[in-house]
Specification:
By secondary structure, this protein is α/β, with parallel strands linked by helices. It is built from 14 helices and six strands. The protein has a six-stranded mixed beta sheet with strand order 1-6-5-2-4-3, with helices on both faces. The radius of gyration is 24 Å and the shape is globular.
Length: 333
């Protein structure tokens, strides 16, 4: 998965490079900056003394010393005033220049904190949006695994309006079987019994059918997930890379899917491609069924996916923000 939001301590991330939300002196400080310097040891400070500081929106790179990575990329985020002093562009520049340095040093994996969202006062929901948008733009043109590391729940805030809208949609559509009425449970049980009888009837007819008839039935099977995916990509007229990057899936996984007609993806991967292809709800249900999955009103993950599809919001990174906020698995590989 090219961009993944994780809850972790960035000083413990085993990646090629971690990004430090530093101050202009690069000589250490509080928060993430202080934690990285303490974990790296005094050698990091000695190297930072040779860099002559760093301006807001810029980035510089050092060795990582005692950290479990190769490099530390130091970037200085903007202090939030009221949003009219170029804060967004400076924050976006932090991510762009850090990613450019990582690419120049052949890094394949990079971990970012949520820059400027601490003592610099950048509103967390806006800081998150800038991070996801800027990293997403980079990943559309480059192959790299990027982690956005959130230290704890308090450090993460989905837009209050969006959170409440999704929460309301979940309340209206999420079926908790423990709170079902007796009649609802009986109705569901009757439906399951009817389905079971139908399957038994089909099984009996197939068993009784002559071999030639069974061959004919097998020939009429629907196309599998891999074949359907490739046909849908062709229908869009877009390049493969445009679709798998929009799905937050890396090139290696897509290559496995393309080269194996019987490939069985995870549910998160199947839905990610449905989002990238901008399928409507019925098309999505049909598409993921070819991989053996369904959408259920008893799954918060599925209800959130349904909400975004009905809103025609096919931004996989925005969807992953919401899934993360509700403690659900993320879309992608």
């Amino acid at each position: 998965m090219p961009l993944e939001i994780v809850r972790n301590d960035i000083t413990k991330m085993t990646v090629d490079a971690i990004v430090n939300a530093a101050n202009e002196t690069l000589l250490g400080g509080g928060g993430v900056d202080g934690a990285i310097h303490r974990a790296a040891g005094p050698e990091l400070l000695e190297e930072c003394r040779t860099l002559a500081g760093c301006r807001p929106g810029d980035a510089k790179i050092t060795k990582a010393y005692r950290l479990p990575c190769k490099y530390v990329i130091h970037t200085v985020g903007p202090v939030w005033n009221d949003g009219t002093y170029g804060e967004r562009e400076k924050l976006a520049s932090c991510y762009r220049k850090s990613l450019a340095l990582a690419k120049a040093h052949q890094c394949e994996t990079v971990a970012f904190p949520l820059i400027s969202s601490g003592i610099y006062g950048y509103p967390k929901d806006r800081a998150l949006r800038v991070a996801v948008d800027t990293i997403g733009e980079f990943l559309m043109e480059n192959d790299m695994m990027v982690y956005l590391v959130i230290f704890d729940r308090d450090a993460f805030q989905l837009s209050g309006k969006l959170f409440s809208e999704i929460a309301e949609y979940i309340d209206d559509h999420y079926v908790d079987e423990h709170s079902d009425s007796r009649s609802a449970r009986l109705s569901r049980a009757n439906r399951l019994a009817a389905k079971s009888m139908a399957f038994e009837t089909i099984a009996e007819s197939v068993t009784a059918a002559p071999l030639g008839g069974l061959d004919e039935l097998l020939c009429e099977l629907d196309a599998g997930f891999s074949e359907t995916l490739l046909k849908l990509i062709d229908r869009t007229g877009k390049k493969d890379s445009e679709i798998y990057k929009k799905a937050n899936v890396d090139r290696k996984l897509f290559s496995k899917i393309r080269n194996n007609p019987d490939y069985k993806p995870s549910k998160a991967t199947a839905i990610a491609f449905a989002i990238a292809l901008e399928l409507n709800l019925e098309e999505t249900k049909d598409f993921i069924a070819r991989a053996g999955f369904a959408l259920s009103r008893s799954s918060k993950f599925d209800v959130i996916i349904e909400y975004f599809i009905k809103q025609k919001n096919y931004d996989v990174f925005a969807i992953n923000e919401a899934l993360f906020a509700f403690d659900q698995s993320l879309l992608g590989a």
